[in-house]
Every structure is written in structure tokens, then in C-alpha cells.
Amino acid sequence: MASSPAQPPRRVVVCGGGVVGACTAYFLSTHAASPTVPTLVEKSAPACAASGKAGGFLALDWSDSTPSLSALARASFALHGRLAAALDGATAYGFRPVNTLSICLPSQPPAEPASPHPLLPSWVDPSASAAPPRVLGIPDTTAQVHPGLFTKAVLAASGAEVVIGEVERVVVHEGRVVGVDVKGRGVVEADAVVLALGPWSGRFELVKEVFDVSGLKAHSIVLRPRNPDKITPHCLFLSYQPEPGAKMLDPEVYPRPTGEVYICGMSKDEDVPDDPATIVGEPDSIAMLHKIAGRVSSQLKTGEGAEVVAEQACYLPCTNDGLPVIGEMPGVKGCYVATGHSCWGILNAPATGAALSELILDGQAKIVDLAPFSPARFLKKKSRRGV
């Protein structure tokens, strides 16, 4: 067990303005014993990548089959509730409990009008369900936030100084981090550095030497239905086979309190571009999401009055073993990393940030055991491969 540092670091630099970086900044600045307001360095703008384009769905117990992830998710779900109370989340970023259903979308519309199932919300067309829907979550176990608004609200509440610039390298002296080199600005000195740049975390040599983090390109659209006030808080997880023999798709539909409806579900492995601002969706994937939206509800048909708010894509950070990487980088004192959360980044960001703040300021994390997520776990795998 790590011992508490004699003196907590005074200068902390968080690299990355996404949800994990924002939550880390918040919990550093609100630490009970040693509150430390960090500097946050972001290349483009806060929440410009996946943290602004994700769904924002939260689940208490969907990770229970993996004990380490279960502990992280359950702690984080509880923190979401506490943050919403502290930051007026319902108003500031659309926090609300939701009902969650599983629906099998038929490949072809039925020839005869279908009778509505009592579980189906009124805005979902009866023909959208080829079988009785199943309950996946109730308001006690599933919730949502608007991810971009959540990220920005938490970051603002942290009081962190936000520097817009590109971190080119982590500056290390005698095995200890001493700062980060920001393009066009020079070295920003630091006693501790947090790398929370999603799939871009793997661009740093000291990260690449230890583990791989790749990007999964995920597409989404945001629609404003004809009658937004008729859309109830039901999140839908769909199963859909576009045609016989085609690959099964798993689209998701999330209504938001703003009256908008978010639809996602088309993804592919792809190299991450250098600049998040250049990411665009692929026309075929966007078209399929529109088709699915129209099959779910006539309220979501663009030809019948639904307004297109966004057509977009982002990259979810993924690791080789499917677990996030959270902890101090081996061989570099004071350099911490938090990435690889895949599709659960919005859910797990609060517990990740809280645990990292404890690790940095207290010498160990208490809210959740970080051992399963340590980057050091990859050293053993690489040594076995002879790398």
C-alpha cells in the first residue's frame, strides 16, 4: 500500500478537457484536506470530442459481471447523484432518473397495424416492437445527463485555470514529472500531471511504452421531434437486423429533458485523427441512424417534421483488456493516467476523478480500489511476450 506523501503536490496539471479531466479537476479542487485547484490544458475546447457527443446514459449495476468495474460504476453512479444535488444538475445539465427498455425492432414494418404494448411509451410506434419489450432499468438504477453540459458544469465548478494549447510531451527529470511542454507556450511546471486525453493519451511515448489505447469511431444523430413535450424519459436499447443475413445492430435512443432525442449505434475501429475538430460522421452510418429513428417513432421522422440538430461522430478510448487505465505511470513519479473507459466514460468519470484526486493528494485511493486499473498491469503482459 502506498504511503501518504509528506506534502501533497502544489501544482497539478490535468491534460484533457473531456469528462474525465473535468471530474479530476473538480475533485482535486474540492478535496477535504488538501484542496488543490489545477491547471487544465485542452487542445481544442472542453467537451469537444466524445464527452460532448456521447449519450450520457448512466447505469448502477450493468457492470456487475466484472467486480472491479462494478465497484467503479456503483461508486460513480452514487457520485452522479451527489454532484447533481451540489451543482443543480437537473437544471444545469439535464440530470434525471429514467426508465430503460429493451426493444426488438422488426426488419420490416408489419403488414397489419400492431397493438401497443403496455410497456411501450406512447411516443414509440407500436410497430417498432417485434416482441414484448423488456425492462432493463428503473429510475432507481438508470439515469442520464447531457454529457457536454455535465462536463462544462463540473469543470466550471472546479475553478481550474483552462489553458487552450496542445501538450507535446511530458517533461521528466530523474524519473519524476516536472511539467508539460505546451506547443507555443513552453513548459508549464508541475508537481503532478494527469493524462486524461481519451484515445489521444496513446500519443505520448511514456504511455505507448506501457500500453495501447485505440479509438472506436461511434456515430450519433440528435433530433428535435415534432412534439417534444410528448417524449417521456424512456431510454431504449434496440436490437435490429436491417435485412435477413445482415449484421445485427444495437442502436440506442435517449430522449433528453431539452426536448431533443439522441440516437447512436453505428461504430467501427479506426485510427484517431490528430485534431478532434476534423471528425465527421460517415454518410452511410448517419443514414442508417435516421432510418432507425423513423422506424422507432413517427415523431423522429425528418420527413414528418423532426428537426436535425446534429449528425456527428466521436472516438471512444478502448484498451486491449477492456478495462480502463487509472493510476500512476510505472517509472515516472507524479505522472498519472486516466483513459480507456470505452462507452462508459460519462458514467465512470466521477469515481475516476475522485479516486485519482485521492491518489495524488493522499497517496492512495479510498473511494474505489484502483489496483485492477493500474497501468502497471500491462508490464507483466509485455514481459511475457518478450516485448
What report would you give on this structure?
With 387 residues, the chain is α/β, with parallel strands linked by helices. The chain is 25% helix and 28% strand. The chain has nine helices and 19 strands. The chain has a seven-stranded mixed beta sheet, with helices on one face. It has a six-stranded mixed beta sheet with strand order 8-2-1-12-19-18, covered by helices on one side. It has a three-stranded antiparallel beta sheet with strand order 3-7-4, covered by helices on one side. α1 runs parallel beside α8. The model is unreliable at 1-5 and 383-387 (pLDDT under 50).
Helix-strand topology string: EHEHEHHEEEEHEEEEEHEEEEHEEEHH
Task: Write down how many β-strands occur, each being a DSSP E stretch of 2 or more residues.
Answer: 19
* Mean pLDDT, all residues: 93
What structural class should be given to the helix and strand makeup? alpha/beta
**Cα shape:** elongated
Low-confidence parts: 1-5, 383-387
With strands numbered from the N-terminus, the spatial order across the biggest sheet is: 6-5-14-15-16-13-17
Question: What is the distance, rounded to the nearest whole angstrom, between the alpha carbons of the first and last residues?
Answer: 28 Å
Radius of gyration: 21 Å
Share of residues in strands: 25-35%
Q: Sheet bearing the most strands, described?
A: 7 strands, mixed
Number of helices: 9
User: What helical percentage do the residues reach?
Assistant: 25-40%
